[in-house]
Design brief:
alpha+beta; 5-stranded mixed beta sheet; 5 strands; 19% strand; iron
C-alpha cells in the first residue's frame, strides 16, 4: 500500500503526517479518510482548485493529468510544475510526498 507523506500545513496538518492508502485512491480521498480535511469545494468533481497540492516526490507515479485538470490548475494559487488537483491524482504503487499550499483561491471556506 503506498504511503503519502504530507508536509506540515498550519491549518490542515500542523505536524505533517504520513498515511497509507490503497492504489487507485485519489490523494484527496486518502487525506479525507485520514482526517486531513483539505478543501474540496466541488466535492471532487474537477470543477475547482481548492484541493490543489504540490507533489514533491513520486509525481511520475501518478496518473497523467487530463486537459480539464490542467486548465483548472492555471487558476490555482502557487502553481508549480508538480502541481496537481488532489481529487484527480490517483495513487499507483509508489509512495508520494505532497505539500498543501498555504492559500487557495476559495474566498468562502466551509466549516469556518
Amino acid at each position: 500500500m503506498p504511503t503519502i507523506k504530507i508536509y506540515p500545513h498550519p491549518e490542515y496538518c500542523p505536524q505533517g503526517a504520513e498515511i497509507t492508502a490503497p492504489a487507485g485512491t485519489s490523494i484527496c480521498e486518502a487525506l479525507l479518510d485520514n482526517d486531513i480535511n483539505i478543501e474540496h469545494a466541488c466535492e471532487m468533481s474537477c470543477a475547482c482548485t481548492t484541493c490543489h497540492v504540490i507533489v514533491r516526490a513520486g509525481f511520475d507515479s501518478l496518473n497523467e493529468a487530463e486537459e480539464g485538470e490542467e486548465d483548472l490548475l492555471d487558476r490555482a494559487w502557487g502553481l508549480e510544475p508538480q502541481s496537481r488537483l488532489s481529487c484527480q491524482s490517483i495513487l499507483a504503487q509508489e509512495n508520494v510526498t505532497i505539500e498543501i499550499p498555504k492559500y487557495s483561491i476559495n474566498h468562502a471556506k466551509e466549516n469556518h
